[in-house]
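#lab-general

N.A. 3:47 PM
ok so I finally got the sequence cleaned up, no stray characters, all 269 residues accounted for. can someone with queue access submit it? mine expired

B.Y. 3:52 PM
send it over

N.A. 3:53 PM
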Amino acid sequence: MPTAVQLYNDDPDYEWDRLDRDAYHRIEFDITMHHLRRHLPPTGTILDAGGGPGRYTIALCRAGYRVTLVDLSPGCVALARERVAAQPEDVRANVAATDVGDIRDLSRFDSALFDATLCLGGPLTHLPDADDRHRAVGELARVTRAGGIVATSVVGRLAVLRTIMTRFSDEMTAPYGRDLLRTGDGLGPRGVPWHFFTANELRALLEAHGVQTLALVGCESLSTGLSDATNRLADDSDKWDAWMDTLVAASDDPAVAEMSEHILHIGRT
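B.Y. 4:20 PM
back already:
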């Protein structure tokens, strides 16, 4: 059985392309960035933990932040370095480092080192063991200064169940499928064990490590599960602008966050 690291090493370009594959997938990035802009300090240092090939790192460096990226996949880190090297000099200068690293062990970094720490796109979902998830969140909080921001996003449990119902219904009869609603434990691509979250579970995990909740967000908002309709709507710029305004406005509604494909928690240490 492959591991999550092997999945990303096999095709790091897939993760780079994932957030820009089409209009539907861009929503996750755009809504995440909207809420980061609301809560991040105007300047400062950021750790992009589990940052993959660097989409968020590059966007934040363009905005003037000083960013350090770590990711468990050497393939993703290599691609991040390649993408950073293609940026203008002022963006490259804001990248402090791009290194292989494990979110469960950030001991290379001093406590309270960063003004904000990010763990976006689902790295916590790739930790099927509850102790590992607690270890990782403890590390994210530890390296963030008092009063700093910790932003984490995970794959939502209810959205996964809806996907199984519509596209992989045979999985409902598998043992993990029967228990997924209760446990959150399931399988990702190529049978890799993942853990899928409810919004309340994510909130409780962060708050257990002293991270005060500021926002819970559904990254795909009301478009969750409606990829075809969303992509068709994007062909009409007026309708698309109006729809994006609606998605952003609804994104932090508790019901919308609970049902979204990716759930974003933003908190303060």
